[in-house]
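SAMPLE LOG
Freezer: B-3
Tube label: C17
Construct: single chain, 504 aa
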Amino acid sequence: MTTVDSNGTSEGVAQALSGDEAARAEPDPRRWLVLAVLSSLQFMILLDMTVVNVALPRIQDGLGFSASGLAWVVNGYVLAAGGLLMLGGRLADVFGRRRLLLIGVVVFGLSSAVSGAAEAPWMMVVGRFGQGAAEAIAAPASLGLIALLFTDPKERTKALGVWGGIIGLGGTLGYVISGVLTDLVSWRWIFFINLPVALVALVLVPRLVTESQMVRAKDHSLDIIGAVTLTLGLVGVVYGLLQAAEHSWGSTAVVVPIAAGAALLLTMLLVERRARNPLIPLGFFANRTRSVVNFVTLFFMAAFISYTFMLTLFEQQVLDYSPLVTGLAWLPLSVGIGGGIALGTALIPRLGVRVVTGGGFIGAGVGLFLTSTADVDSSYVGGIMPGMLVFGLFAGATMPAATNAALHGVTVQDSSLASGLQNTMQQIGGALGVAVLVTLALRHADGEIRLGTAPEVAMTEGYTLAFRIGAALMVIGGLLVMALIERVDTELRDPMAESLAESR
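STRUCTURE (predicted):
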């Protein structure tokens, strides 16, 4: 792996280049072990996005949360992660990916301990903000390291397939683990189980991972104005979307933060155009493959997060499942995603990421539509599981392909920035799903109840409507991918070789 010393010089830049082809760096023999360690850590971090959902009623009873305050157990995480991921990715490129990863691990462990030991609502919210910040620091650094460790395109496809699948498995298994621990032990253990993973990562990462960072001139200074406007802008947009779940779209609580966030992001773009050392070079967005796949990630995550959130409510509120049964009911989705990851990784060399990503989106939309046919009398096997398996299989196939496309053409200069952008789109997409689809479902149900419809029927109709809109978003995203994305097979450019060539 190319490294940079304290003076900003690149080791290994002097490697010979034959003809027009850059010589590849010798692959790190420990790369698969490093992937296992980083994937395990990322699994635990992503688990915390959803692990609290099933346990929320117990957390509310245990800590005395108000109804509005309880929302910040989820919102605190989303706000911190969504606001800081882009900055975290760029800081990893600039100051060192291993360094930022270790900082993120420490923050993650401490925040998990605070959440698990919380004795008051404020402690839980502080811990959740910390966990979200830990994802923003650690996740881009981890994925940036993986993109640079695997220099062979076929190996990188497999590695990114594993990594992409971690997103789905971490998200869905959170419900399973939360249900089991909440019912059989205590909700506190959904946070305490993170501590051993954090300790193992702190021991192994310094021994296995070589530091890497972008090549910088000696007078290269951090773009502070760009960093501040980017972070505050993203925080404003995400906060406004979260407020839309509780207020009307025209309310001050929603319009003001979103407008302010958008204005700050526009200011950031103007600043970056003139900055001598921009935090985010605007040319980074010129790659059409990366730009398109990050845009449709909004559709994917809006449908995915709202699906898992609303189906959990449907199972508990309409079908009267216990937390344990609700958690175990998600196992088929995890199986489907695991199978989809394997299928997608195998198909990418044959069909290319455009076909696999687009087809995965459309197939996942079909799965959501099947789920929307469930009603108050549906059984689990006949009404829920078929759509869940179809959705999981195609969503899983999409994950490695989309991750490959999101890192298309990145170099050692911007691999963590690319990762931070993808993760930011995931967080904003999830916030959009809760703000738009979940809110639409709940407000539709309230309207039906006021008209005299039985509550269970009204809630089911609301969820059904939102599932179908999510299905449409998936299909639209798939069509956009098929129409706009470049043809990218496994021959993604080698970021290591490109970095060496650019350095010369």
